[in-house]
Amino acid sequence: MTKRSMRSALLLALVLVSCRKQPPAASTKSGPAVREISVTSKGFEPARVEVPPGQPVVLRFTRKVKETCADAVDVKGDPVRHMLPLDTPVDVRVKAPDSGELAFACPMQMIHGAVVVVPQ
Ligand SMILES: [Cu+2]
Question: 28: CA distance to ligand 1 center in Å?
């Protein structure tokens, strides 16, 4: 297998995996935008994700490190604490505010990130 075809196969596998994880309601063509956020030794990467105002958006968190206090994430205004199992994408659906930011953080509020509204 060439490097190129391996890459295509990998991409295809990723697409298949992400399709399967989508709930039926999100499979319409006007589904919410998805922003991938990794948890690494540096914290949330990227720590700031830009979104249009007032739109639903899916934050897809994937924890990639074993040792981190961000083994869960709290999103401001969301009473549910979202556990982040290692190497498992977890979708958190939020609605972007009309302006400003929507903060998220680890349960101890040590590692921070934010959804940043960018006017269109
Ligand atoms: Cu923490």
Answer: 36
